[in-house]
Amino acid sequence: MTSHKKSMMAESKKRIAQASLPQATRPHIPGYGLPNSKKGLLPWRWAEDRLKKSRQFWIATTRPDGQPHVMIVWALWMHGLLYFSTGKESRKARNIAQNPKCTMCTDNAAEGVILEGAVDTERDVERIRELINLYEKKYKYKLGKMGERMLALEDPVFFLRPKVGFGLWEKKFATSATRWLFNSA
């Protein structure tokens, strides 16, 4: 392959990666004195770094009667989605079955990342196998029977597809508060 073709392929990959990045905007938070300019907005890599490093995540779902439900889960940022698992009879799973919209947040509120979107169930066994491998490394915990049930599609593996995200860095909040808008593809 010629160096020109390699360069064109690299540029094409770069454009695809940039096209899939969410658009950084300023959140609408009246009364907080946020600037109107884009200066100081956090880059998406700031959020991805925190999504990858967060050990626990807060997940907010809605009960069938409309009441909120918040719980802590382990999760993994992988392929632009936030993956997690829970027992099929858990309150979270039953809430998601009724209403897939949810919010998930990283564990460090001083450098918080909040994702809003819809949850779906992963059914690709190879993707689940990849998830289990990375999950066990991250948490230094063997899933054992739970992993087997996940691979057999007996226990659900969920992923949150973000629609909107927020980056809130406490030390630089006034200049860095960021909202990311995702393509709804």
Q: Main sheet? A: 6 strands, antiparallel, barrel
* Secondary structure tally, helices: 6
Strands of the biggest beta sheet: in what spatial order? 2-3-4-7-6-5
Beta-strand content estimate = 25-35%
> Average pLDDT across residues?
90
Alpha-carbon distance between the termini?
A: 33 Å
Structural class: alpha+beta
Low-confidence blocks of residues: 11-19
Subunit arrangement of the protein: single chain
The value of Rg in angstroms is 18 Å
What is the approximate shape? globular
Features:
185 residues; alpha+beta
Can you put this structure into words, describing what you see?
With 185 residues, the chain is α+β, with helices and mostly antiparallel strands. It contains six helices and eight strands, in the order αβαβββαββααβαβ. Strands 2-3-4-7-6-5 form a six-stranded antiparallel β-barrel. It is globular and about 50 Å long. The two termini are 33 Å apart. Mean pLDDT is 90; it is low at 11-19.
Topology:
Blueprint: H1 3-20, E1 23-25, H2 44-53, E2 56-62, E3 68-78, E4 81-85, H3 91-98, E5 101-106, E6 111-121, H4 125-139, H5 144-151, E7 157-169, H6 173-176, E8 178-181
Antiparallel strand pairs: 1-8, 2-3, 2-5, 3-4, 4-7, 5-6, 6-7, 7-8
Short description:
The protein contains six helices and eight strands, in the order H-E-H-E-E-E-H-E-E-H-H-E-H-E. The chain has about 180 residues and is α+β, with helices and mostly antiparallel strands.
